[in-house]
Queue: 4 jobs
Job 1
Amino acid sequence: MIIREIRSKTILSASKIHNYVINPYIGCHHGCSYCYARFIKKFTGHEEPWGEFVDIKINAAELLHNEIRKKKPGTVWVSGLCDPYQPLEESYRITRNCLEVLIEHRWPVVIQTRSPLVLRDLDIIRKSERIEVGFSITTADDDVRKIFEAEAPSISDRLAALERLHDSGISTYAMIAPMLPGAEELGKLLPGKADRVLIDKMNYHYADHIYHNSRLDDKLTDEFFRSTGNKIVKDCKEAGLCCNLVF
């Protein structure tokens, strides 16, 4: 893993998903095989494989403190091109420091992560009435997770963290995107842990070779995504959990 400390020029960027996005890091230790964010290498000049480099924006909170006073308030997505709670966050606390600024200024925040490390920040998350925390949970089968997301936290750890946040009174959501093999059981596991669920198919081809080598080509078809998505929606709605397909 190549780790660099950098000083960024900006931190609060416009987003097509929410009003703004903050990416405290460039690159991601999780290195999920299908991740769309690897496209940033075209613009950052990194030659290392995706998942083998992380740049740490050590001045992120300082930048945010200055930028937030100059921009119209809006919802901030944390994050879009990295996991804000990847392992380096435990020691660098870049995400935590940015959250403190956002919460101090009472801006709405949507966190998206795969890591139970977000629980460390429950003390400041509880201070905001305008925050939502979501977990990307792509399968119910941890053996499948090991194939596609080998460096990411286990599925059971993600579910447990999501449940703790929910039980703590925090608004929570689950993002089943992309649906991996084994995702069909998630509709039975998420009620009582999430307030809403979003589902998407595999939209990129970075992991096609993994599907083929693992003899999982049938799980990369429109029929798989359609039937699996419908089953998850059905199971969630039967349990009273809001669930939507986004494809």
Job 2
Amino acid sequence: MKDGPGTTPQSSGKLLELGAAPQPLRWLCVVLGAALGFVVGRVLGVRRAQVLGAMRRAGVGAPARAASQMYAGLGAGLFELLASALVRPRPGLAAQSEALPQGPAIVLCAHTGNWDSSACAVARQTPLCVVTKRLKLGWVDRLWQRIRKDSGVQLLTAGGAAQGVAQALRDGKLVVMMIDQAPERVRATSVVPFLGAPARVDLAPALLAARAGVPVILALPLRRPGGWHAVRLAGRWSPPARGKRAWARRVMRAATLALDAHVRQHPEQWLWMHRRWKDAPALPSPEAPIAPSAFESAQVGGVLALPPRAGRKLSRPLA
């Protein structure tokens, strides 16, 4: 589907069927992840009060159950990522290669589903860069970075990645940037309603895309029944010749509201542990309504399936 300038997202609607990891390994990751999630979420209670408070504010039904599922999914994602590094991928099913977005483009992503394994799967098939933060625990950070690098992911450290992003786009690569964390600065941000409260949104991804003249793609990882994973292609926007800052502001607002709709549909699959709403001022009066509009919710569509875990290989394309 051809995209044009503006801020109305267009979805691919493609479903790509891929290979799968062996069933025992798939369920082992789920079982171990549930155990780890129980320890982290219930025994240690890591940020559990914050998670429950944010879910209640967003109107999530049965927040305690959704929180437990979130911690279990986070644990499963860790073991899935480790398994993907230990088990040699096997060929998957034939797929439609046009389902995968091609670079150069900025890919907006979020901490939904298994975002790391999804990025690794894509990077095995097409040039992919990820703008990433570093973890405080050194040995965990080194392991995390190594697994992704071994899968072909090029890593750019957040905070000073502008030149690296520009070069990657000139090289024709996809560049993934996360949009669900609070920016570490106020400059070049806007305030958007997100899950029941104002949140500051970084305009940098859309501004970089506008400067390079490349499209912005919203891709949201998603867990599916049976151990399968997917990437929901929720929007695509091309920059205009003029008015790029206003365009960037509108695109990032639309992408944030599309993410809002996605999380409300799958609340157990988003990482609620982030301090997403810190330092955000009150919304201006024209933006006072918190819930996303029906139009913006309806734009979330188009699913690209990724395999259930380690023993798989994409047959081309899209955290």
Job 3
Amino acid sequence: MQTTAKKKILIAARDREKGKMLAACLSDAGYEVLLTGSEDIAKGAREASLIIVEDTVSDQDSFSDYSQIRRIREISGAPIILFGPAGNVSNRIMALNCGADDYMVSPVNPLEMAAKVGAVLRRQEGHRAGSKGRQNDREEIVIGEIVVDPGTFAAYRQGERIMLTPNEFKILTLLAVNEGSIVSYDEIARFLDIHEKNPNRSKNIIVVHVSRLRDKIDHSGRDEYIHSVRGRGYRMQYIPAD
């Protein structure tokens, strides 16, 4: 395998042997790898291009453990891939809701993980390249108090940077460039490159991402920006709360 650049991958694994196997495979693929324990999950997060986390959450402590992912999201917008047992579906949804971008069920083949990492990074770079291509038409998109800058892969509210995951930023950009128009679930799924045989699962993944995005951009709690269109998708339009 080859990569076009020396990307930094952070692996946070409680099981050191699993972590070492993943690290060895990713190093062979040309990545710079930092291996740390799951308790030091924030170490190196600022510099990482992608973060891999072993999910050690049980049904009883899901909120407290996934809050670490929330803390990562406060300092990094890098994609996060969790890997762990199939467990409870609600736990996997909680992980996505807290900021993870993908979840791989154990046992994970290191080669499969390397392929997943490569695919996620390629999609991210492809999105950035596409965003830069749109700069000639529109440097920034301003909707209400929200400013979306595709060229720098950043979004702001009242001048303050909004820390978004890659998928959240993709959704925000897609909705923003189609301001006032309905963007269907299928359009969002294609834009995020979601390939699920069950359309309901694709929709559920999108709903989780949009819910997180709303929490970050909508301080009123009344959906001033992103509006659900029953059975169809979403529309972005600034409607100030009364």
Job 4
Amino acid sequence: MGSLYEFEQRMGFREHNEVYQYEMVSEKLRNQFILLVSECVPYSEYDLWTPVTKILNIEFGEMKTNGISNKVQVIKILKMCNNVGALYCFEIVLATLEELVQYEVAESTEGAGELVEHFHYLISEVNKKFRENSLGYEYISGNLIRIDSKFIHQEVIVNAIQLLYENEFESASNEYMQAFNDYKNGNLKGSITNAGKAFESTMKIICEELNYSYKQSDNAKKLISTLMNKEFIPSYLQTHSSGLSNTLESGLPTVRNKHSHGDGVIEVEVTDKIVRYALNLCATNIVLLVEIYNEYIHHG
């Protein structure tokens, strides 16, 4: 059963034009966070909210209201604080819980293994909700980190999207945004495939506009060869572009490999790291190609 975000995309109610933002933490996401934390881990057995409340009361200068629980106090602070404060609350709750988990594991307490599983599931779900809400942060090992420390975000990814849009590379723009949204949705294989398609579409549009001979069936390697032969790609970049071709063609790293000793097919694990690499690499090279194209048409 998919999330509401996935349902909205499938039904066509959500536009595929969202890159990450860093300043707005919606009320919806704040509520989702509390619900996930409350439901994913059996906190009745563990004292999470007392240390969290102590930290947040001090940092936000709040006095605890008589008659309410520590959990309710945390919810009260999370709902009233500004966006930066909400991010701080997220980090404090998760980091405190991680310390609790580590303590239970170190003490080999009964149920520690189950608590670890719940915690890993919680982090996965929280990070997923961040992506679905286009919030550019991720919780890793005690800290919230900005996604653009992994993605070359403003300088490359956004630049690639803007260049494609401004230069009417519509099909390539749509494919790249689909790749980015596939990643946010957890469709890692689809993200890699669409990154490769966006790269190929960019080259096909360039070939079309410059009257270079090509076929719609040409893959990345063939298209790069065409651009090289026409000296569209400068000679000093040709070695790099050949390596790029080997990486991006056929949907980026091979997702399905055939056994050399049988007829079966084995699934090759596609990880977040591989997909981020694909999106970064695709954006970097789209920017390069479109900037060369712009220079070419303006200066001949």
